[in-house]
Design brief:
The complex is a heterodimer of chains A (592) and B (350).
Chain A: H1 9-15, H2 17-21, H3 28-36, H4 40-51, H5 54-60, H6 65-68, H7 71-74, H8 81-91, E1 110-114, H9 118-127, E2 133-137, H10 146-149, H11 158-169, E3 174-176, H12 184-188, E4 194-197, E5 203-204, E6 220-222, H13 223-231, E7 241-245, H14 249-260, E8 265-269, H15 281-289, E9 294-295, E10 298-306, E11 309-322, E12 328-332, E13 338-341, E14 344-347, E15 351-352, E16 386-388, H16 391-394, H17 399-417, E17 429-434, E18 436-438, E19 441-442, H18 461-464, H19 478-485, E20 493-497, H20 507-511, E21 517-521, H21 525-531, E22 543-545, E23 553-558, H22 567-571, E24 577-585
Parallel strand pairs in A: 1-2, 1-4, 2-3, 4-16, 6-14, 7-8, 7-14, 8-9
Antiparallel strand pairs in A: 5-15, 10-11, 11-12, 11-13, 17-24, 18-19, 20-24, 21-23, 22-23
Chain B: H1 37-51, E1 59-63, H2 67-70, E2 80-83, H3 89-99, E3 104-110, H4 111-115, H5 119-128, E4 133-138, E5 141-142, E6 148-149, H6 172-178, E7 183-188, H7 192-204, E8 209-214, H8 230-236, E9 237-239, E10 241-246, E11 261-265, E12 271-276, H9 286-298, E13 302-309, H10 316-320, H11 332-335, H12 339-348
The chains are: A alpha/beta (592), B alpha/beta (350).
């Protein structure tokens, strides 16, 4: 195996598992350290620059960072990264003075954003400071997109949403609310330099063919429309017995909202086995905590109507089986159908994209899946001045992905307006900062605490179930936030090995608590992985290999469970290990 | 400075046959200088005890005074231990061993503690073949008092900022072979591949097992004029051979060409398979072992590995024909059998 090129910006980026896993590459360890130091404003700004909506995401993010967190591999649970983001948002003072101010003189370019969700708002935030004129069109009365209409207030209070949406709108977005764009052709005719489409996946899936669907229509609702109607107060109650069909996060939002609108006996019914449900584990937990049972492996057969009212639903028992091609399929067990009585049904079985307003003859190609044909990185459609982002681009994902795509689209739009090659992307800004302060003394806090993950306090269930506007989670207080922030392993403080000065005394290998440093005879990667003191089985984590040392051996470090405690550097007599903070700032439109 | 080692260990760390993990054999975080060879030896001891495996509570750590003698704090913190007066580790170990023969005795000493102040004790422990693994962490200088030459410093060797040593050095291994030790070996702290099996074999050897481990003092004796620096030792090292230590219960899986390998069966049935490098030497011959040590020394080379091994050697208890039950388990009735028994004994001398 060749010596590792640590100069490559992606090498150390990969070691920072949380940042690497975050679609927007938020500098997680950096903001967590700032929280430890009580510098909430700074922590918030680090977040705001990368993910635009720290207060919102600190409550409702899908948290791809947490399963990736190294702490989860050495201890039971990862750092509560998401909830720490909320700590930064909750405890910050005013950051308004720190927001970028768009120039008074514009650059003469006009951009239209269709849809007012997180992707579009991200594009606006990235392009306004560069002097663009930004016009936003949305059919709702306020910006926020599905974050506003679908996420219940007991998970995301409206004030938090408004605050962060307004940071962007106040930068000078020309908003056209309650304005449904019915024709892209007409928009193209308005002479915009570029158009960004971030209209999400607005169509909730239904079960139109199921017997009884039409007759029971009054009692059967499509989840996302129903949630929006609750938000706008068109609906304020539901029957006592409710079935929620589906196993994703929308299903969890539906069932918990139903509990707050008078549903006493709310049940979730899902086709797939419980372990394969799409909803985040913590959202499932929250639903269970609110006395909502989950019935799995049941496939809907029929809406049962009696005397013009919905009496319940019939389900077929199914089980997962692997077919010849190795795909998992659900097949009927042949048992008698199961009847579950109910008064109303909420369908949360998926969302689809819909672009009825995009004319077929204007040059935008669509693929077989109904999604536009886009360049994967530039997000440019087959009509050069039209870009897509968020759920509208590659199908429904999550908010943080929409933000990341918004950043990329903004870069593309800027390059496009400058007449430059869209594929020549700006590079990330990286830096290495030595952490040595004195003899065995570091700038960062290298101590590894034994504390377990802190629990988030919640409002009493009796109270929260009475009021759909009352936020359930109270968030960490400053003390708990501090304790939790100290659980971070500082994975951005990198161990850098200097082979020229190493005397191979083994001190680092001996002291390493997690046995990741080895001095062995070189070999290819598979061979090295198998010969380490503890074999390196996690192939998603790199091996750091040095050039050959005087004895002919090489240093091999398995990055997998390194605690970044700095003991290797402390025990090295020749300073051949350095602890350096690696800063990776994902390129944005301003870096073009 | 970090005084606490994180408590987390690798999630896939292996468990030994007794159900212990390596952490169960660790000690406190070391306070020796960064890069000290002694820390490597401590780790080799941890590894050897984990691999054999021994039960931590069946081990007794004995030491004297010096950097070396601080190390028992850094390994096996679930074992018994006694930190004795300077150079007096062997007599304390003798007393403990006489009282309870069932434990595994591990003595840790340095070149000052052994070859200077403790020489008188050292040679008698060898003569008596005390059942003790005697590890000398040999750095050729007095590190704890700022690096003066010790009695094992080679003539002409220079410590940091020191003058060449004018005196002849003591070769502890030669001395041990001459005085009848049954297991004599030399290791290097920078070569755990050799040191760990040496320690395993020594810990299971009956009688005294001396391992002289060259352990560079990075602070005072790792300079270019020193014969005990990492660089010098690596350039001049020569091993009697590589070897496998095969405990009794384990199956022999690797077969070596005949002639090149010497298999020595230990008292408990364990086998040491030695793959010779140097002149096909028989390590069970005391005279040849001494010849070889001298020959290699003439060549300016440092011979390591097992230097001498007498699988038939007996320990002090066997020599004195003591009772098989440890003395500390005997009751008063057995220890004081009464006037009639005394009369019988006295009658034998009439």
């Amino acid at each position: 195996m060749k010596p590792t090129k640590i100069e490559h910006p992606e090498y150390f980026h990969r070691v920072i598992d949380c940042q690497y896993a975050c679609p927007a590459h938020t500098q997680v360890p950096e903001y967590i350290r700032l929280i430890t130091a009580g510098r909430y404003d700074d922590a918030y700004m680090i977040n705001w620059i990368s993910n635009v909506f720290p207060g919102i995401l600190g409550r409702i993010c899908d948290r791809p960072c947490e399963p990736a967190c190294r702490r989860g591999r050495v201890e039971k649970e990862p750092v509560a990264i998401c909830r720490l983001k909320r700590v930064a948002a909750d405890f910050k003072e005013s950051i308004k003075a720190r927001l970028p101010v768009p120039p008074k003189t514009k650059n003469g370019r006009r951009i239209a954003l269709i849809g007012g969700g997180p992707a579009s708002l991200t594009v606006a935030r990235d392009l306004l400071p560069l002097g663009y004129q930004v016009d936003l069109f949305d059919d709702q009365s306020a910006a926020g997109g599905f974050v506003r209409t679908q996420v219940p207030s007991f998970r995301l209070p409206q004030e938090v949403l408004d605050e962060e949406v307004n940071y962007i709108l106040d930068m000078g977005v020309n908003c056209h609310f309650n304005h449904y764009v019915g024709s892209l052709k007409e928009m193209l005719g308005r002479g915009y330099d570029a158009i960004f489409i971030g209209t999400g996946a607005p169509r909730g899936r239904d079960l139109p063919e199921l017997p009884g669907r039409k007759e029971g229509d009054r009692f059967i609702h499509v989840g996302i429309y129903w949630l929006a109607a609750v938000l706008y107060r068109h609906i304020d109650r539901i029957g006592k017995r409710v079935l929620v069909i589906g196993g994703g996060n929308t299903a969890m939002d539906c069932c918990r909202t139903a509990r707050r609108l008078g549903g006493d006996k709310v049940k979730v019914v899902v086709r797939s086995p419980r372990a394969e449900m799409k909803a985040s584990p913590w959202e499932i937990e929250d639903a269970l905590h609110e006395d909502i049972p989950i019935h799995d492996k049941l496939s809907p057969l029929e809406f049962v109507i009696k005397d013009g009212r919905l009496a319940g639903m019939l389900f077929e028992r199914v089980e997962g089986q692997v077919d010849d091609q190795g795909r998992r399929r659900l097949t009927a067990t042949g048992e008698a159908p199961v009847f579950l009585p109910c008064d109303e049904v909420l369908l949360a079985i998926g969302q689809q994209n819909a672009f009825p307003w995009i004319e077929k003859d204007i040059g935008i190609e669509f693929g077989r899946n109904g999604l536009p044909v886009l360049h994967e990185i530039t997000h440019q459609s087959t009509l050069p001045q039209v870009f897509f982002g968020g759920d509208a681009a590659f199908g429904p994902r999550n908010v943080i992905t929409a933000v990341a795509q918004g950043h990329q689209a903004a870069i593309s739009i800027h390059l496009f307006c400058e007449g430059r090659d869209l594929r020549q992307r700006p590079h990330p800004r990286v830096n290495l900062t030595g952490q040595k302060m004195g003899f065995h003394d570091w700038i960062y806090d290298s101590h590894v605490t034994d504390d377990e993950r802190q629990l988030v306090p919640t409002v009493e269930k009796v109270r929260s179930l009475k009021d759909r506007l009352l936020e359930v989670e109270l968030g960490f207080d400053a003390d708990r936030g501090h304790r939790e922030s100290r659980r971070c392993l500082n994975c951005d403080v990198q161990t850098i090995f200097i082979d020229r000065t190493c005397i191979e005394c083994d001190a680092c290998a001996d002291i390493c608590p997690v046995t990741c440093i080895n001095f062995i005879v070189g070999g290819d990667e598979d061979d090295l992985r198998s010969r380490l003191q503890i074999p390196a089985d996690n192939r998603e984590q790199a091996l750091y290999v040095s050039p050959p040392l005087p004895t002919g051996r090489v240093m091999v470090k398995d990055e997998n469970v390194c605690l970044h405690c700095g003991l290797c550097a402390e025990r090295c007599p020749t300073a051949s290990w350095e602890m350096s903070k690696f800063t990776y700032h994902e390129a944005q439109a301003e870096d073009v | 400075m970090t005084f606490v080692r994180p408590s987390f260990r690798h999630p896939q760390q292996p468990t030994n046959a007794l159900g212990y993990v390596r952490k169960d054999y660790e000690g406190l975080i070391s306070t020796l200088c960064a890069g000290c060879g002694h820390d490597s030896i401590s780790n080799a001891i941890i590894q050897a005890c984990f691999e054999i495996p021994v039960e931590p509570h069946k081990v007794v750590k004995m030491s004297g005074i010096g950097c070396s003698s601080k190390t028992p704090a850094y390994f096996l913190d679930r074992s018994h231990g006694f930190n004795s007066v300077h150079g007096r580790m062997p007599s304390i170990a003798t007393g403990a061993n006489m009282a309870n023969r069932d434990l595994i005795y591990l003595g840790v000493s340095g070149d000052g503690d052994t070859a200077s102040i403790g020489m008188g004790q050292f040679i008698h422990a060898l003569r008596r073949d005390l059942n003790l693994t005697y590890v000398v962490m040999n750095n050729g200088c007095y590190g704890l008092t700022k690096g003066q030459d010790s009695a094992t410093a080679d003539r002409g060797s220079r410590t940091k900022k020191g003058a060449p040593n004018p005196f002849e050095s003591i070769d502890l291994c030669e001395m041990a072979i001459q005085l009848g030790a049954g297991f004599v070996a030399r290791g290097f702290s920078g070569d755990k591949q050799q040191l760990v099996p040496l320690l395993k074999a020594a810990l299971l050897h009956r009688g005294i097992a001396l391992i002289d481990v060259i352990s560079p003092c990075v602070t005072f004796n790792n300079s270019s004029g020193s014969t005990k620096s990492y660089q010098y030792v690596r350039d001049h090292i020569e091993a009697t051979g590589t070897f496998d230590f095969i405990p009794l219960q384990q199956e022999i899986v690797v077969q070596y060409e005949e002639g090149a390998t010497q298999a020595v069966t230990m008292h408990d049935g364990s086998i040491i398979q030695l793959h010779k490098n140097v002149g096909g030497v028989d390590v069970t011959s005391r005279r040849r072992a001494l010849d070889l040590l001298e020959a290699e020394r003439e060549q300016g080379r440092l011979l390591t590995g097992i230097l001498f091994l007498d699988p038939e050697s007996e320990d002090t208890h066997a020599i004195l024909n003591t009772t098989l039950t440890p003395l500390n388990q005997l009751t008063q009735a057995e220890l004081c059998p009464g006037a009639a028994a005394l009369e019988q004994i006295n009658a034998r001398f009439r």
